[in-house]
Amino acid sequence: MNNPYLPEIAIVKEIIQETHNIKTFRLVFKDPDKMEQCVFEPGQVGQLSVFGTGESTFVINSPPTQKEYLQFSVMRAGEVTTKLHSLKVGDQIGVRAPLGNCFPYEAMKGKDIIIVGGGIGMAPLRTLLLYLLDNRQDYGEIKVIYGARSPEDLCFTYEFEQWRQKGADLVLTVDKEFPGWTERVGFVPAVLAEEAPAPMNRVAITCGPPIMIKFVLKGLKELDFADEQIITTLEKRMKCGIGLCGRCNIGTKYVCVDGPVFTQAELNELPAEL
Amino acid sequence: MKYVAELKAKIREKLPELDVVIGWKQGFDPVHASPAFMTTPEEIEQLVVNPLCVQNLATYLPGLKGKKVGIVARECDTRSIGELLQESLIEREELTVFSVKCPGAVDLVKLRQQVGDLGRVRSISFDGPRVTVETPDESSSLDLGELLPGKCRVMAYDEPVLADFRFVDPDQDTVCREEADTDLVALEQMDLDERFAYWRGHLDRCIRCYACRNVCPMCVCQDQCIADTRDPHWLSAETDVRQKWMFQLIHAMHLAGRCTECGECERACPMDIPILTIRRKLNREIHELFGYTSGMDVDAVPPLLTFQPEEKSITEREW
Amino acid sequence: MVMGDLKFCPKEGLSRWVEELSREHTVLVPQQAGDAVEFLPFAEGSELSLDRQPTAPPKKSVFPQTETLMRFEYQKDPEHPDRQTLQIKETLPGKEKTVILGCRPCGARGFSVFDPVFGQGEYLDPYYQARREHTVFVSLACRHPENTCFCNWVGGGPADSAGSDVLMLPAGGGYVLRPVTDQGRQIVEVGGFEDASPEQQTEADRLAEEAAENLSPAPELEEVPDKLFELFENLDFWELMAAKCISCGACTYLCPTCYCFNISDEYSGLQGKRIRTWDNCMSNLFTHEASGHNPRPTKAQRLRNRVGHKFSYYPKLHEQVFACCGCGRCIKSCPMSVDIREIVLSAKEYADE
Fold this sequence. Notes:
The complex is a heterotrimer.
Chain A: E1 8-17, E2 22-29, H1 32-37, E3 45-50, E4 54-59, E5 70-75, H2 79-85, E6 92-99, E7 112-118, H3 122-134, E8 142-148, H4 160-165, E9 169-174, E10 184-185, H5 188-195, E11 202-207, H6 210-222, E12 230-233, E13 249-250, E14 253-254, H7 255-258, E15 261-263, H8 264-268
Parallel strand pairs in A: 7-8, 7-11, 8-9, 9-10, 11-12
Antiparallel strand pairs in A: 1-2, 1-6, 2-5, 3-4, 3-6, 12-15, 13-14
Helix pairs in contact in A: 5-6
Chain B: H1 4-14, E1 20-26, E2 33-38, H2 41-45, E3 69-73, H3 75-86, E4 95-100, H4 108-115, E5 123-127, E6 130-134, E7 139-143, H5 144-147, H6 151-154, E8 165-167, H7 182-189, H8 192-203, H9 211-214, H10 241-255, H11 264-268, H12 276-290
Parallel strand pairs in B: 1-3, 3-4, 4-8
Antiparallel strand pairs in B: 1-2, 5-6, 6-7
Helix pairs in contact in B: 10-12
Chain C: E1 7-10, H1 14-22, E2 26-33, E3 36-41, H2 59-62, E4 66-76, E5 84-90, E6 98-103, H3 105-109, H4 111-118, H5 126-133, E7 135-140, E8 166-171, E9 174-179, H6 182-190, E10 194-195, H7 198-213, H8 224-230, H9 235-242, H10 250-253, E11 261-268, E12 271-278, H11 299-317, H12 329-332, H13 340-352
Parallel strand pairs in C: 2-6, 6-7, 7-8
Antiparallel strand pairs in C: 1-9, 1-10, 2-3, 4-5, 4-12, 8-9, 11-12
Helix pairs in contact in C: 8-11, 8-13, 9-11
């Protein structure tokens, strides 16, 4: 029987220091066949194990179209993330992936897209963005609003040019003026209001700190987005990742298997327990 | 108790000034009383005071800080309130103490030893020291003195530590008494191996539910408890006797000279493990060293919450 | 029922049967331990304690409080002293058979709540399945329901056979043994018992019926899952229900149907193990996130989830079955006498108003 608790061993291939407290890890399975067999969809998550400390859940933020490694971005917050941050290239960790559901990228075909991300919340959105850009012809306008507290808190800065070249309309913002900063200034929800994307034939996908999400949702409502057009990806304390251990539920839904991706319309059906 | 009508009247009178009054009401069956959180006159009507009212309601007080709370308390319960005040864990101004003369208490484990499964008791009644218990099979007449929890046999309280209102029946005697702590003495007389085997045996059935910790009025670390944290990682999540024993020792040490021996830890234990003895032992040590008894004087500073450059009873350098 | 299937075990024959079974199996029987009654391995001279409902159900036999999921080891790489290689070793339970004898029907029924979660979903739990497959339940039908018993509310009964392999029905100074499964039939065969006489069978049925009649009548609970859902945002209601709760784990850990668990690593030096342990949804830390955020920061919210899981979410996901077997342990073991029946009925009536 396949043991769903058993991680595969993976080797840290590359580490990118994104911000003062966020690192990106590129991992390859020790067994090359596993790398080959690892098929996932944008938005799915993985459980990273630092043995002796524990396991935590992160969205796989490399696109499915990229087969050389799995990428995870980790903000240092608790015990496991602190341990992950101490890893060096060549170290071995455990990976259980893919788990959970994915962004409805098929249903999004032919539509305009607005992606709204804040801070580390850009990580789960990156996998979707890269997938959309790799299949650029299937989608309409792709606008990305990405904000952080300061220019130093933005992740993936080294890729911004590439995203633009591949056809993303990237709007960057930071909370206040910084020397040398030439892009937008202001909170993400305010920038969203300025950009005012029309809801017609458009899907909005958002992820970020809870307070940002709250005001982004309010802003999208004001722009007349319907709840079915708004998609988000949730975070909960998880242990098993396979719908058994019983802590990540919101009513009848388990974020680890029924999520992490939900439309606002789906969330409306659930008890308010985010 | 005859004073219950008077007590209800007083609570009714005071209720408008208070957010809630905590007392007891009849629980889910004849032998169980349950804490009652009274906010309406109808709820006050349900108040009962009898030997089945065993919960020390002081345990709820730190969680209700910031609210105006009334509490119905037996003499021994006021000792816990006293200790909470000493440690500034609650505010006197927020508190109204309805002190009742204790009608005695029933240790349900002892009752079960006498009448069998408590789930079959159809009725229980009290007449002075007589307790009459009916099950479908038989009617038993028992002596309340024999059913008292251990804690009521080693310390007698005639008066409360503090009270705003006091309720006593004219002919009422103090039920608790001060006898030798035979349980503790028996343990102290065991040699180390015997004692270790004793605790191993009992703690083996601990399920780590932490009812003992959560019910303890003096246990205030709450969500920061060393038993649950992984940083520092003092206890593992495993369920071997070592972890359980370690927790009990940490708990007891943390309560040394603070524990008011209300016995809630032992009463709450669903596996009936006699854990109060460990806390009593630590309290005896503190008493010997500092001549101090927790919770009896609201103005006193607990000895382990302060220090003297030279302690009278501690001669660490043989001076 | 096939004729001759029902056997009779005289009271004095019971320990011989258990002894016989213990030659080839681990047999867990209720035994007095201090003032509690626990399922402990039968050994020569063990005394069975069958008069009281065991303090804890037989849950740990199939779902141990600590289960080692895997062992891990880091090894220094001699070529690169600063580098370590990792090895993971799966640790599945062995195949030895365990017999639980003398549990109550509700204790065995508890696993029928586990089964759809651990053995029938998208992900199968190999640890649970291995133990479940190799455990046989011989349940003792109840003669005297307790004040806290409410198995009849949730589909059970004093002689309910769901989840059991053999049912022991008290009769004629002994027990009529009714095999429920093939495994159960094999276990009964070991005893070499005589067939139960028609009189014994009649008496067994009569006593079972009497016991069922002694339970308080079951209320209609069909609408409860929806009503609890509707009450979700009424935090005043849940604060009232949770006022006396002290957020301990007595109810959860003694519950035959509570299955929530934690996974953690324990290690020393370069080696260690990943373990699964029972977890308590009433604890603040259960859902506490590393960021500091907690979706259920108060005991009212946690109790809401606990009762919601049992009487709303689980039945909505699993064919209207409640995640409760009505054993009443959460009620009688609660230090503060929180009564889940009262909460369920209050919810039902509250929504009615």
